[in-house]
Amino acid sequence: MDRRKQESYEIHGHKVAPGTQEVVRLPVGVFRNHAQVELDVAVAHGRKPGPTVLLTACVHGDEINGVETIRRVLRASALKSLKGTVLAVPIVNVPAFLNRSRYLPDRRDLNRLFPGSAKGSLGARLANVLCDSLVARADLVIDLHTGALNRPNLPQLRVTARDEASMRLAKVFGAALTIVSPSREGSFRGHCFQQNKPILLFEGGEALRLEAQSIRTAYRGIFSVMRELGMLARRSRPEKFIGNMILSEKSYWIRAEVGGLFTPLVPLGAMIESGAEVGFIADPMGGVERKVVAPRQGMLIGRTNEGIADEGDALFHVALLSDMEDAQGKYEENLLGDAHPDEEHAVHYQQVDAR
User: Fold this and answer.
1) DSSP 3-state assignment of 79?
2) Where do the Succinylglutamate desuccinylase/Aspartoacylase catalytic domain residues begin and end (predicted)?
3) Could you read off the pLDDT tens digit of each residue along the chain, which spans 355 residues?
């Protein structure tokens, strides 16, 4: 039995008592109208000692699935028995969120400005506060993203190559697919990797929409990882999705060879054989219909929902797999385990499903 005394969690001059949850506002800068720019952090501090997990969403201001996921995490009754601390930032990129935009007001991408600077642009200062005040305190970071507008992604994780700690936790998270990919210079994931902080980057759904499967998967995955870290009591039976991870180390895009009206023929999650017809592009004047063919086999993890395409537009994102048959079985088992993680949120899932 752990008899260590849990101290209050102190952040920016605020003390959060054990067994409580508070919102702390970290100052970032000043808007053009002299309003304060602040980073709102929900601190859920357990009654007993344990790891610190940082949850972030909306690094791109229009990616709102993660905002809703973190909101539900903070309302979950399971946090009453929490060991350790959850630091949650549902909206990292406040200026972009207020504009319903992916980018900062100066059109820069916040996810290329890390670790930022205390004396730089507004975006650089925002990145600096997140890194210095929160990442530095965390034992694990879970960063939630979506696809772009009209470009939904299958629920998936991105893990940096050689990051063994993150890969171990990815197996527990239970997304449909985990992609091993290099991190980009200036990205949040890249900064965490450089600081030896395990980070799971989750992608699911598309911008400016709440999508039920992605929210369910992220919510379920967060609590599964917290149980693995000893922050919550383990369940009597292992989750069905644990051990069903599909791994991919490379992906490719299928692009339009001509312009026209685009019709997709396969859903996200489909296993595609080499040479398979996955859609077609039609001449608006009633002329030729051009088949869109997959040059290589793999799993469909992203696509455009736009009904028109120009020559060269990205239509489908396909993950390459070493064993298609094995991946198909794991994906089907994963879907069977994609139930509501706790009954108190069932009505919320129903509401999202109905949209």
Assistant:
1) helix
2) 49-228
3) 556 779 999 999 999 999 999 999 999 999 888 989 999 999 999 999 999 999 999 999 999 999 999 999 999 999 999 999 999 999 999 999 999 999 999 999 999 999 999 999 999 999 999 999 999 999 999 999 999 999 999 999 999 999 999 999 999 999 989 999 999 999 999 999 999 999 999 999 999 999 999 999 999 999 999 999 999 998 877 666 676 889 999 999 999 999 999 999 999 999 999 999 999 999 999 989 999 999 999 999 999 999 999 999 999 999 999 999 888 888 888 776 654 444 445 545 454 443 3
CA 160 – CA 167 distance, rounded (Å) = 8
Q: What is the DSSP string of 258-325?
A: S-EEEEE-S-TT-EE-TT-EEEEEE-TTS-PEEEEE-SS-EEEEEE---SEE-TT-EEEEEE--S-HH
User: How far, in Å, CA of 274 to CA of 277, rounded?
Assistant: 9
Residue 303's DSSP bridge partners are: 316
**Torsion angles phi and psi, residue 225, rounded to 5:** -65, -40
Sorted by where each starts, the structural domains of the chain and their CATH numbers stand as 9-246 (3.40.630.10), 251-319 (2.40.50.100)
Q: Which residues lie closer than 8 Å to 32 by C-beta, 6 or more apart?
A: none
* Alpha-carbon distance values, 351 to 63, 210, 212, 308, 355 (Å): 19, 10, 9, 30, 7
Own/partner pairs, 287-295, CB within 8 angstroms, 24+ separation: 290/257, 290/258, 290/260, 292/254, 292/256, 292/257, 292/262, 292/316, 294/254, 294/318, 295/252, 295/254
167/352 Cα distance (integer angstroms): 30
Beta-carbon count within 10 A of 14 CB:
15
The HSE-up count of residue 100 (CA atoms within 13 Å, CB side) is: 3
Q: Number of C-alpha atoms within 13 angstroms, CB side, residue 304?
A: 20
DSSP states of 149-210: TT--EEEEEEE-TT-HHHHHHHHHH--SEEEE-PPPTT-HHHHHHHTT--EEEEEEE-TT--
Q: Is 232 helix (H, G, I), strand (E, B) or coil?
A: coil
| Angle between helices 212-228 and 346-353 in degrees, nearest 10 | 150
